[in-house]
Amino acid sequence: MTEPLPSPRVRELIRQCAQIVSNARPEWLDELDQAVLAASPAIAADPELAAAVSRSNRANLFFWSTANVRDPGAPVPPNTGPEPLSIARELVRRGVNAFPLDAYRVGEGVAWRRLMEIAFELTSDATELHDLLQACSRSISAFVDATLAGIAAQIDLERDELTHGSHAERRETVALLLDGAPIPRSRAEQRLGYALTGCHTAAVIWTDTHDGDLTRLDRAAEAIGRAGGGRPLSVLASSATRWVWAPGALDLDVLDAAVRDSADIRVAVGTTGDGLDGFRRSHFEAIITQQMMARLHSRQQMARFTDVEMVSLITADPDRSADFVARVLGELATAGTELQETVRVFIASQCNASRAAARLYTHRNTLLRRLARADELLPRPLAEQSVSVAVALDVLRWTG
Description:
Elements: H1 8-22, H2 26-38, H3 41-44, H4 47-70, H5 82-93, H6 99-122, H7 126-162, H8 166-178, H9 185-192, E1 199-207, H10 215-228, E2 233-238, E3 241-247, H11 252-259, E4 265-274, H12 275-295, E5 302-304, H13 305-314, H14 318-329, H15 337-348, H16 353-360, H17 364-377, H18 386-397
Parallel strand pairs: 4-5
Antiparallel strand pairs: 1-3, 1-4, 2-3
């Protein structure tokens, strides 16, 4: 049975509430994202899923608020737009089915608390507040229920699609290989169209800005084949992520040049390994690299496992790593990238000033002046803690 519309005065208050929500402050949106992602660390560690959740949060907030600006207090239809439906797609492709309910309920709670704060700022009349909050509570709950029902239906469609066709066969075969299942190598090679002998280098390619056009990911996968000198194996891990293996080592200069013009494409590369063990190890290294880039919100477009292995270990506990950086670098931590890069290159050049100046394309005296400035900012002289400084600067370099 349809609930009657609130009184004209309450409808006007709903409209004013919705107008404020539709222009939500950035810190409100950040709070919403953080609360939803905190409920599932596994989702937060996946950059593609985390970005999809953030887009869905904003889309749902905007959808409900604009509907109530147009027609305050009227039933709001479910949001069946691209953002919530992309959540269904990503969850199914990862085998996760229970997350949407928890995430949307957490988001509903955060949004409701904000809306109550707004309501108390708009009126102090007890009767108006009661009717306003009751109407908004019913509206938000019904909207979330209907949207979740739409996502559940989409999950069923996506699951049906995923379990048919050649993609499912390749994905299943790769999963068996990564799990160490005793699948005959010849059978696996036949299903994958890829030789499992020799050396392999794995990469994870993904995009943080899922706009439906994924041809850039396919081109990046092809570029990995060119960089490796052979036909790659590419598996659709999700709608905006590719797992790729190339025979042999990768020419990273070729790969960098191929993806440089697509700023939203990210690449994580494992080390080159031999046989099936190398196939697995290189992939897991690429996954660790991707997760670290997501955890640190890194702006780097491409990273190798060998570049980030130490940083990944140190930043596994974000609070302790932040304390380490602050304690070791002191004021150098906020001194700007030019001075930090000078110190980093100097240490990487085995503290040889002439060699470091050449690598930085700067005069030796300029380098020495910068190093003197760095010593003034560091809690302890560089000469006494060069290794710790190098590690701390590396953490900063990979942090967004």
